[in-house]
Known about the structure:
The complex is a heterodimer. Chain A is mainly alpha-helical.
Amino acid sequence: MKGNENPVLTRLWSYAIWAVVLFFVVNLLAMIATVVINSLSTRWLGTWLPPGYTTRWYFSAWKEFQLEDVLVVTFQIAAAVAFFSALLGVPAAYALARRDFPGKKLVMLLFLLPLLVPPFTYGIPLATVLYKAGLGGTMWGVIAANLVPTVPFVVLVLIPFIEQIDPRVEAAARVFGAGTVRLFVYVLVPLLTPGILAAILLVLMRTMAAFELTFLTSGPGSQTLVVSLYYAVSAAGVRAGQSVDAMAVIYMLTTLIWLLVALRFVNPTQIVTRAKREPAH
Amino acid sequence: MTSQSIPAASSAHNERVPLRLRLAQRGIDGVTLLVLPAALFIALLFVYPFVYGMNLSVQPKGGAESVGRFANYVRFFSDSFLYDTILTTLWLALPVTIINVVISIPVAMRVRLMRRQRLLTTILVLPVTLGAVLVAEGLLNYLGPQGWLNRTLMTFGLVASPVRLVHNYWGVFIALIIHSFPFTFLLTLSYVTGIDPSLEQAASTLGAGPRARFRHIILPLLLPGLAITFCLSFVQDFAVFPSAVLLGAPAGPTRVISIAAYQAAFEEYDYSMASAIAMIMGFVQLLIVVTVLTSRGLFYRGPAGGAKG
Lengths: 281, 309
């Protein structure tokens, strides 16, 4: 970079920027550290660090919040959401990547809207409909509600992956007499495995962390970990803070494991910039 | 007779075969139909509930005949406890979104020059992955009167007594910043990296200083992306719920619109009123988004990729 710039000012400016980033990251990590330390402390009041450490809060949280049941429900819901969103999303992504048809823009809009409208806005009418249909408060209701943002998410993540596959490979399969089903099973799915895996991992992660939709549609017995955590925090004072934080750490671990696995397959920005491709370019 | 029947037969033939072909030519064949299950699903669980909710919101609890079709909306806009939630929410969401976007630009400009962005972006993805509930719980400890932040401030003598940062406006404000800065930043970063560096180098060669380069080259190219970033972040911030309940004062200064909708639905069991509030919420979001995107039309629109176009 040349040009008439003042080196001192440029240097100062760049320090200021790094200071902002550092401030943010330090506070973020300190915040996470407080949760972890509190969950491991015997009692922590008015000091920098707790006087003693213990793991008993984990055992009491495990019993108190029936975490075993909650974890089983969470994994069942996340797995079902991942499975169904792939089942619905992969074919749709294929059709959208390979065909140009009238009304395609409308279909794309249909898939973009659930990602752009925040869950709370459509969650309330959706919960009302699910309760009317008798699905409210059940696990299937929670799964259906969580599929609303994840199906479009899978579609949008996979379209670029499919566009990268050479259409001549498919043409060759067709020439040798493969129908659409065989084409999918023997050609597309194997070629798309990295993309599908990335999409499924991101869906698992989003479903674990998705609060609003599960909160609005779940009942007792269909709550995921994050919703149980919310109820535990909002009823704080009734229970020991360490116990709530132990649960928070367990929740953190379940999401972070998926994050670490996901990061092996995807670029971190992909987790956030899901609507990146959408802007009207 | 035969001479007449042959054209008829051939035209029937023409119509039968080309129908498929013509559809295929326009891109409709078996493969296109694969989009249907997903599209129907979204129509059933996203579009239908919206229409249903809109319908429900004009069928108030007391009966449309006795209290009027728009009784819910009338009630919302005549009860200050309800209509104030719009201002409360805007008062939280707008400053947070603006601050996040404004800070994101210089940071993204800097980070784009970094060779190893992965560690930073991974750390920044953390709050997004952990979700609002965990951020709220962590901040309750961290910002509390005995938390590390207040202890640090007091140790350095910056404040005499602990600053009150939880169970008020600032708690929610900080939680929203932490939760949505990474999102805003990573979006901005993806737009900034989309600008061809050679454009900036050309300006530099012609003698433009950093401020002039930013003002005349980067900013105009970035504005359309920033408008999208602003909208996406704003819409997320506007729907704030868990942190407003856990970290704020849900009865007073942080009684945001989603709390009002939630209370109508699950505490008063008035789904009609709840749908009306959800519709108002969606409408306010739409209003802001449309305003921002319309003003985007005033900015430069075109390729940001130099020669490649």
